[in-house]
Amino acid sequence: MSETKENRTGWQFVKFLLVGGIGCVIQLVVVNVLYYLMRGWTAPLPAVLSGIFSETTMGSGNSNWGYVVPFFTSNLVANTYQYIQNKKTTFKVEAPKWCFVVYLVVLVILIFVVTWVQGVLNNFFINSGSAFLIKLAPTLAVLFAGAVYTLTLFPLEKFVLFRKR
What we know:
With 165 residues, the chain is mainly alpha-helical. It contains six helices and no strands. Helix 1 (5-37) packs across helix 6 and helix 5 packs antiparallel against helix 6 (131-161). The protein is elongated.
């Protein structure tokens, strides 16, 4: 019995989510470790970044390297792992090197946008007054980011980068 295109896409999405789940664990560990290790790194961001990651948006004391680096780094590490794993196991293709370059460009743009959104969400949870939400703020922000990445990166990988040629 031959597999239909819809069934293959559905199964690839399930595998993409499973790989994303592993990436999520990697990201959660990295963001939380770095977030707590770098909280004292209060060096201000350069002007171009401080305009995006302002204290108004990110919360008081969060417009600095010790706040932004953990979110950016955890996204980069987790999504690079996911790219490699999805190429090998989910889509089973040999993609040319330019695909990884395109992926990295899209990923860096996406990371900046999602890091900003994570900061907004993290600030919201910290200011909620709930001790529970305050402790889980970075984790909840990362989980939201995972949904954004899934909705962006699955179509990019499936239909553009890892498309059967």
